[in-house]
Design goal:
Blueprint: H1 2-29, H2 32-47, H3 52-75, H4 87-107, H5 115-134, H6 142-153, H7 159-178, H8 184-205
Helix pairs in contact: 1-7, 2-3, 2-6, 3-4, 4-5, 5-8, 6-7, 6-8, 7-8
Length: 207
């Protein structure tokens, strides 16, 4: 009886371990720092090939700056890990993102850049500001927000691309809850924020 119980416990532990590993993989797959720059570059390549090289530069600078900031905070032991889930970690990351996105938006304003580039930076900055304002009552998931935003940005590639983006967003939302990084209301709130940003992006771009 004891052996049977021990075997059952081990199997449950293995199952939980596999579930956590899968959730971590999904969370990394849907990390905004990885997915958003790729989506933007693909869109620029499709819609604005002549200025593609020039447009990539601010995107890569911003992505590299955020990565360097995150790794530096972990290296100095100011953050527990790169996820920035603790309130003080999230506050410092969000402040850095607001400055970085704001500067990128200003730097890409002008005729030599596609108008969607500065608009995308501006809306991304707005999403972070909204998350900061809501932080006292709800820790909105920025993974969910930016993945949902990306799922609508890929509209020019067709409905299948949007559907795939939404499916990835749903998987990432599940992973953030499974990893105890967020609650269900927090990932749903983040997803709504991102979808609203996507709708706003295409509305303003069409004006």
């Amino acid at each position: 009886m004891t052996n049977s119980s021990s075997t059952g416990n081990r199997e449950r532990d293995k199952g939980r371990c596999r579930k956590r590993s899968f959730a971590k993989a999904l969370s990394w797959l849907g990390h905004p720092g990885a997915g958003l720059p790729v989506i933007v570059i693909l869109l620029l390549r499709r819609t604005d090939a002549p200025s593609l090289t020039k447009s990539i530069i601010p995107i890569l600078i911003l992505a590299a700056s955020v990565l360097a900031f995150v790794l530096w905070q972990v290296h100095r032991r100011r953050w527990k890990d790169v996820d920035a889930s603790l309130p003080r970690e999230r506050r410092s990351l969000n402040r850095f993102l607001v400055v970085g996105l704001g500067c990128a938006g200003l730097a890409t304003t002008g005729r030599s850049f596609h108008p969607g580039l500065s608009l995308g930076f501006a809306i991304s900055c707005l999403q972070v500001l909204i998350a900061m304002a809501a932080s006292r009552s709800l820790k909105l998931s920025m993974h969910a927000a930016f993945d949902a935003f990306c799922s609508l940005l890929v509209k020019p590639f067709g409905p299948w691309a949007v559907a795939a983006g939404l499916a990835i967003t749903a998987g990432v939302c599940w992973s953030r809850v499974a990893l105890s990084r967020h609650t269900v209301p927090e990932v749903l709130g983040g997803a709504v924020l991102g979808l609203s940003g996507g709708v706003l992006f295409w509305f303003l771009l069409g004006l």
